Every structure is written in structure tokens, then in C-alpha cells.
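Now for a concrete sample entry.
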Amino acid sequence: MKRSIQIFAVSALAAGIAACGGSSDGGSSTGSVSVGLTDAPIDNADAVNIEVEALVLQAPDGERLRYEFDFPQPLNLLELQGGAVEALIQDEEVPAGEYNWMRLEVGTNNTIEIDGAVYDLTTPSARGVQTSGFIVPAGGEVALTIDFDVRKSIVNPQNDATVYKLKPVVRLVDNSTVGTISGTVTPELINEQCTDVTTMEESFIGNVYVHKEYDQVPDDIGSENEPLVVVPVTNNGTESTYTAAFIPTGEYTVSYSCGDDFVETADGQPADDDLTFVGMQNVEVNEGETSIANFDTQVAQ
């Protein structure tokens, strides 16, 4: 059974946070920030357990605000798909202004479970991964989400099925400027593209690729035209669906593929996989809305 998503208390708050209402013009010199963690899904694992240790914010005045966490066990990122979020910090009062970056720090107790077998996820010596910057408005609030892209972060050298490496890839999004892309894939298209499908519920039935801007020629992870996110198609016993959450507002090309998309080759170079993409269509993502893009054999022609 999946454990419920929980909000936990910050165990330590760095000194130096300004008091509310500190500016001479009567305005506030502080604002509030909330940060959550979500996962861009992966299709070939049963669990990806990551030890999340701390969050560090690079404040406008040069201070580093450090929040340390005390989870009882590593977080299974696969429980954070389809828009589910784990709260890291909530409504924390911090200095207002432009922050250069945010860093998520992970420990060494990281594992991946595939077909009932558990493998260690080895990590590089520098276990922190930085995001882009953000702005905390004076007297206002900002809610952000770190999208931990598991698919791009897990590296399995193609010559060793028992070795997995964690090279975290994350993106930071402002919750007020994102939407969702969702839709269905018909059984006819899946059977046409996935020639080894046995049952929809148990087989790999493809991925949907989301590329920035309209009319893109889709390509694989690691290519010059790398997708923003890749999300698996899953079957609930009735229909096959996908959901790409926390997509910044804008114009995108979505497509479907049933090919294997490796991140790296055996010698550590970006993998160039020869994938077949079908059903390319333009989708506009609007703030707080779900845009629908369905895939069937007619669209794929």
C-alpha cells in the first residue's frame, strides 16, 4: 500500500531571516515561500527511493537559508506522479527579493526497485542539485515545485543490468504559471506501435513526449531537441492514459512513441536512440487548466 503524502516540520531554519515590516517606507521586506517536490514519471521501475536531506535557498543578501528534513524513510518518488506533491517547506517567511538558486540535497541511502529486485543508486560526490532562480515578492507569497525528473536522473549502463546511477535532473516551476497536459491512447494505436504487448495492464505501452514550441520534430532524451518531459502511458483496466503535470504555460508539441529511450550509453555518453514518433500535435498550456491531447490511429497517420 502506498503511504499517504505528508507535510512535515522543518527541523532547522537558518538565522538571518528579516522581521516582517522592516522597510522604512511602511512596506514589508519579507515574503513567504512554499516549496513542494513532484516527479516526472518513469515507466520501468516499481519504486525510486531517494533520501532527501535538505533544501538550501540562496537569498538576495547572500545568506544561505538552509532547511533540514527528517523523513522517517527515503521518499518513493513514484508516489509523486500525475500532479501529486510532497511539501518540503510551507509558508516560510524569508527576505523578499531575487534568489539566485535553490539546491535540493540528497543523501546516499537511495535505491531503485525493478521487478521485485532492489538495487543501490550510486550518487556523485556532490549530492546537491541546483535549480534556477526565483523571486519572492515583498509582502506577498510564492509557491514553487521542484520537478525531480526520474527518467532523466536514473542512468543504467546498457552493458550491466545491475548497476544504476543517480544523476539528479530537476526543474523549478512557479505553481501560478503552470498547467497540465492529459489524454488517452487507443488500444489500436498501442497494438500497432508496441508489437510485444501482451496485456495492457502489465506491458510497457509507450510514452508521451512533450517538446517546447509548436511544430517540433520530436527527438529522444539527450538529443539536440530534448523533450521537456516524457511521461508513461498507463492502463487502469479500462483505458490507457497519461498525465504531464506542472508544465509552464506556453506552446508545445506532444507525440507518442513505444521505443526504448536510454539516457546514456555504456561508456557514459548521451544515448542516441532511433525512436518512431507518431501523432504529433500542437497543444497550448494555460494557467491552471488541463489541455487534452488524445492519440489514436487517425491522429497518427
Summary: The longest strand covers residues 30-40.
